[in-house]
Amino acid sequence: MFFFFLMIRRPPRSTLSSSSAASDVYKRQMMACVSELSMYQASSMKLGQEKEEMSDLLEGAKERLDSGEVPLEGLEEEWARMQFRQLRQEEEREMREAARGMAVVTATTTTAHVTKTTAEPRPNAYIPDQIGIPKPYGLAAPFKPQEAGASMRHIRKPIPKEIEI
């Protein structure tokens, strides 16, 4: 038994008429445009559906919020944290306002200008033995050198020479 298959071949494209080839290209372009438009239409329908779902969710959340409940289910912990933060911020604001009020009262009662600093205070007066009351140095205040810095470790200490008389 022998089987013979006869293959039917299409003629090469070069033998097709030019109008048929142009028609083929035009059909392909039209099919591409139609498929692209259908994709846009599908995504538009999906986005429209999502918009409707979100607007329904928003309306429900507004109703729940107006009735004093948590806007969305499952957010109880986050809602409690937000409420706590709001209360704490209000308390801090009230404390700042109270402190400002006290600062205004103290500023009007005291005339001295107080500066906060971490610097070590330098002597600005001395107590003479005769009076016992501090007397200001004025322009002749003693010099108080700063502590030696970390770079002083590179400098040799001077060795004083003995003085021979």
Structure explained in plain terms:
With 165 residues, the protein is mainly alpha-helical. The protein contains two helices and two strands. Strands 1-2 form a two-stranded antiparallel ribbon. It is elongated, with a radius of gyration of 46 Å. The model has no long low-confidence stretch (mean pLDDT 81).
Annotation keywords:
165 residues, mainly alpha, two-stranded antiparallel sheet, 2 helices, 2 strands, 50% helix
Task: Describe the structure concisely.
This protein has 165 residues and is mostly helical.
Kindly, what is the distance between the CA atoms of the first and last residues, rounded to a whole number of angstroms? Answer: 141 Å
What is the count of DSSP helices, taking H or I runs of 4+ residues?
Answer: 2
Largest sheet: 2 strands, antiparallel
Order of helices and strands: HHEE
Strand content: under 5%
For the residues shown, what is the average pLDDT?
Answer: 81
The gross shape turns out to be elongated
DSSP summary, beta strand count: 2
In order across it, which strands form the biggest sheet? 1-2
The chain-level structural class is mainly alpha
Unreliable stretches (pLDDT < 50, length at least 5) are none
| Approximate helicity band | 40-55%
- Computed over alpha carbons, the radius of gyration is 46 Å
